[in-house]
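Appendix C: a fully annotated inverse folding record. The material below is reproduced so that readers can follow the format used throughout the book. The structure is listed first as tokens, followed by the designed sequence.
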């Protein structure tokens, strides 16, 4: 079994931070739809669907204690803009401004850049939800090298499950997916000593996709606070009553 090098761990941590930004942005988008901060708006006889007013959003963030002041709120939203999660409706502003300007989540107009990193992340989220929502014995308390680990799964059993669920057609492909999930910081070996492999080693999900994120976490380099409950009622696959605006991760 090959070990995990420092470079790979560093890369996984970087991708994990990107994933946290994506999840946090998506949770905010769903909340803003629910409270109608995001809606169709008119300006100069033109309708702009599914957008929000920057100044109104900053008011909302402060009112809901997601930001302590306007400068902090701007910095948070700039982070989402820099990661291409939101953009100005006419792409005329590269900065998030505390003005009556219209911005939109790229998920709401189909312009979110689905690069390979995002695709692996979305796949990991779907597999995570599938595992959490179905009756299976994959995730349980297990032991390896004298240590006890909660919600751990056996590499070979995970591969069996991926094949059984139709996620992959062949064992080699399923093992490759497991390796990609580990390289992207979605899963890890329980002691971080090994890469993913089709065998008896134990692995855990590094990310709890269901945890409700605070926007202020976007400004912290390291904001993970696990162990956390994996049974949060807030689930990214939640849909609004109108049946639209489903999560870009679902």
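Designed amino acids, in order:
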């Amino acid at each position: 079994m090959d070990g995990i090098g420092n470079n790979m761990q560093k890369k996984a941590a970087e991708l994990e931070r990107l994933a946290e930004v994506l999840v946090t942005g998506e949770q905010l988008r769903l909340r803003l739809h629910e409270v109608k901060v995001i809606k169709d708006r008119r300006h100069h006889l033109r309708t702009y669907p599914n957008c929000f007013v920057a100044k109104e959003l900053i008011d909302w963030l402060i009112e809901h204690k997601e930001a302590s002041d306007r400068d902090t709120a701007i910095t948070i939203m700039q982070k989402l803009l820099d990661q291409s999660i939101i953009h100005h409706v006419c792409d005329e502003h590269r900065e998030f401004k505390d003005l009556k300007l219209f911005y939109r989540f790229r998920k709401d107009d189909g312009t979110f850049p689905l690069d390979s990193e995002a695709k692996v992340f979305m796949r990991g989220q779907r597999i995570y939800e599938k595992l959490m929502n179905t009756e299976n014995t994959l995730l349980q308390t297990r032991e390896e090298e004298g240590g006890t680990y909660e919600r751990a799964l056996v590499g070979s059993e995970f591969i069996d499950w991926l094949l059984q669920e139709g996620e992959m057609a062949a064992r080699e492909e399923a093992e490759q997916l497991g390796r990609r999930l580990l390289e992207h910081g979605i899963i890890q070996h329980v002691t971080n000593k090994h890469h993913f492999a089709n065998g008896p080693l134990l692995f855990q999900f590094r990310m709890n996709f269901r945890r409700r994120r605070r926007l202020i976490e976007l400004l912290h380099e390291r904001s993970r606070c696990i162990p956390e409950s994996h049974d949060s009622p807030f689930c990214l696959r939640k849909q609004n009553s109108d049946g639209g605006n489903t999560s870009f991760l679902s």
